């Protein structure tokens, strides 16, 4: 039997806890607001949810006193980093199960299934979400991620061992947990009416329906005690980032721009139709630099209808985008540049173009490669109608 459509699934991110056990170690800040890699813990969970196309929306549950301020913060976060899902903010309750019940009340009527997650678990992966959704799609009414218990577990009574439990039958439970919305709402209504006290939602649903499991992850830990804060201080990692640039200019007449490539004048070359100085190579290079840190394109930063950039020196544009890259924390370490044109012959200028590009980038000669090629008389470049350039730039960014 097939379950609810993936298009009807929402996530509830619980961020309403007081975090008493962490209060002193965190300077009194609630753990869901602690920052990890530049974002609060609850936002990391939201990011992971958004990476699954089956998630239609998210309910953020915050402490009642924080709802107004946090709704503004979430709205700003979506403006800065649109996760592509619907969202709503609601107030939590005194207990975890009260907060979940409030989150359920905030869901749209057409939400057929829901994934409930503790924001203090910021490290879960999209794989868990995919497994939970697949189980719901296949008809499960409740599904939870679990990991095997590796330690021997004993039941203790009054300081004495009462029983050694069979760890093969035991599992540690994680979130997110997935449920048909109707069965979870019914479970919470019963819990409220009959006074159930539970530690997770599966404990409720187990009384009404079968709950199945999927593999959890050892890395999906919960930030609970002061020692867990060390997990938020992981070593910074330097990662490579690559940008790619492409630019084209058509050849012009005697009143158009003289040909410049990589800041080098090319005597005898065709003229270029352009608003700036028409340096097709440096334009491609600037776009590639912007690509290393998600900076958009040069047309956005230096529009061709702005008189300030009439006959602008493209070397200055490259320096501007290098400054932007530096502000974004990206260090350019390599560039591979190619010009495609039938005319003129660029071999006599190649070494000078490469040296000048390296100078503009502040790199050593071995960090910049330049080459020129033709398209064997094919296309508009082969027909000597214009010139184009491509650039691949590698940067390093510390995360």
TrEMBL record:
Name of a matching Pfam family: IspD
Pathway info = Isoprenoid biosynthesis; isopentenyl diphosphate biosynthesis via DXP pathway; isopentenyl diphosphate from 1-deoxy-D-xylulose 5-phosphate: step 2/6; Isoprenoid biosynthesis; isopentenyl diphosphate biosynthesis via DXP pathway; isopentenyl diphosphate from 1-deoxy-D-xylulose 5-phosphate: step 4/6
Domain called 2-C-methyl-D-erythritol 2,4-cyclodiphosphate synthase: residue spans:
242-394
**Which residues lie within the region annotated 2-C-methyl-D-erythritol 2,4-cyclodiphosphate synthase?**
241-399
Q: Catalyzes what?
A: 2-C-methyl-D-erythritol 4-phosphate + CTP + H(+) = 4-CDP-2-C-methyl-D-erythritol + diphosphate; 4-CDP-2-C-methyl-D-erythritol 2-phosphate = 2-C-methyl-D-erythritol 2,4-cyclic diphosphate + CMP
Q: Which cofactor does it need?
A: a divalent metal cation
Query: How is this protein named in the record?
Result: Bifunctional enzyme IspD/IspF
Species lineage:
Bacteria, Pseudomonadati, Thermodesulfobacteriota, Desulfovibrionia, Desulfovibrionales
- Keyword Transmembrane in record: no
Q: Which residues are listed under the site Positions MEP for the nucleophilic attack?
A: 167, 222
